[in-house]
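REVIEWER CHECKLIST
Item 1: Sequence provided? yes
Item 2: Single chain? yes
Item 3: Sequence as submitted:
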Amino acid sequence: MIDLHCHILPALDDGARDLADSVAMARQAERDGIEVVCATPHIRGDHDVRIDELPRRIGELRVELERQGVRVRIAQGAEVAEPSADALSPAHLRDLSLGGGGWILLEPAAGPLADELVAVVERLHARGARAIVAHPERHAGADFEERLRALAERGCLIQWTAEFIELADPADPDALVLRLAREGLVHVLASDAHSSHGGRPVTLSGAFERLAEVCPPEHVEWIAERAPAAILAGEPLFPPW
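Item 4: Structure as written out by the authors:
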């Protein structure tokens, strides 16, 4: 498994407190069967994340994980805030993309999904970058489903938080995210974990088990394996359903 959204770099944004915390998060991932974790620090105005320092910081964490025998690979990435995307240079867009393949993890602005998010996605596409919308469950509004469909129609992928999926009740016919999964609007999952000390864990397997209760096996396989691998490889990607 591949975790496409995780704040595992130490002492950088609101993620891992220190290197020990980062290693503990990687051990969580390893126990869950996750082989690759994308380091996705916030790129937005309230965090002083210096893009040019990220390769060094990722390299240092890789060295420490190898030293401690943790078999999890750290891949490059970032969580780019919607208002910050347009100001990024082509080089920074490439450096912040997941695995360097050109897919940008895009954090919607606070509040319900709005027209500007679609406009930002279209501008990113015009610049050669493809967009993955992060944690839409935090941005629901009256026209939530219509907004998600509009994004998907423009080639955008939708990334839901694994814990949110795992906690959904498959016996509840009104469980929105599971209905959207059946309708094809769940494209990839990620932990969006911030620390080993609390909050969301670096785990995915429970969420995939929940999806398997409501979706065909070929859909779950695409979400769990084919799509994340293609994203890191920089391949064009469209849900087969």
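Item 5: Key structural point noted by reviewer: Residues 217-233 form the longest helix (17 residues).
Item 6: Recommendation: ____
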